[in-house]
Amino acid sequence: MGIVSPGFRGRRRSTAPDLPPGQYLTTDFPVLSAGPTPKVPVDRWEFVISTEAGAEYRWTWDELMGLPQETPTVDIHCVTRWSKLGTRWQGVSLDTLLAGIDTDARYALAHSYGGYTTNLPLTDLREGRAWVAHRFDDAPLAPEHGGPARLLVPHLYFWKSAKWVRGIRLLVDDTPGFWETGGYHDYGDPWREQRYQGD
């Protein structure tokens, strides 16, 4: 049994000068998942940041909706080589969620409903580069795309934008996530084609 959604086939199309190397442009939004799509009602959803010292900070769905919202328009790049340009999202910046949290961590491990994890340097979640996104293209984020909320870290390959996100654990040392343990690159910069370990 494969680890990518059935029926997905990568394909090459014409490239554009603003695409990372090895990518092709798509106008649709391919769905790739490593398992079944979790169904998470918003009245049971929560987002938790846990620090390396064990402190926990929690937000319910209503609390997340009450935080300042941002509407980034960003390009996204999948490790399977498709890129989608000018995507429109709405969500809460990680800067807002991390504000006031005392930590010496250098890394974060994102956790999703369904058990998926992915690791990122904490600096890549700061300075307006990452969001907990809950709307896409002016509509609630569909479950197959990670709804009710997903991590959005568009400057890295899209597997780092964990679907169905439920929290992040702040860490002093880097800990590989699901795909990274399976051989994908620890960082995943599309402009440097960091697809797999050793790239």
- H/I helix tally: 3
Number of domains: 1
Uncertain stretches: 1-15
Distance between the first and last residues' Cα: 27 Å
The CATH class label is Alpha Beta
Determine the strand fraction and express it as a percent band.
Answer: 25-35%
CA gyration radius, whole angstroms: 16 Å
- Give the beta-strand count: 11
The dominant shape is globular
- Name of the CATH superfamily: Oxidoreductase, molybdopterin-binding domain
State the share of residues found in helices, binned by percent: under 10%
Order of helices and strands: EEEHEEHEEEEEEH
SSE class = mainly beta
Overall residue-averaged pLDDT value: 91
Per CATH, the architecture is Alpha-Beta Complex
Describe how the helices and strands are arranged.
Elements: E1 24-25, E2 46-50, E3 56-60, H1 61-65, E4 73-77, E5 82-93, H2 94-98, E6 107-112, E7 117-121, E8 131-136, E9 139-140, E10 150-152, E11 165-171, H3 178-181
Parallel strand pairs: 1-5, 2-11
Antiparallel strand pairs: 2-3, 4-5, 5-8, 6-7, 6-11, 8-9, 8-10
Region (Disordered): 1-22
Pfam families: Oxidored_molyb (PF00174)
Domain Oxidoreductase molybdopterin-binding: 35-179
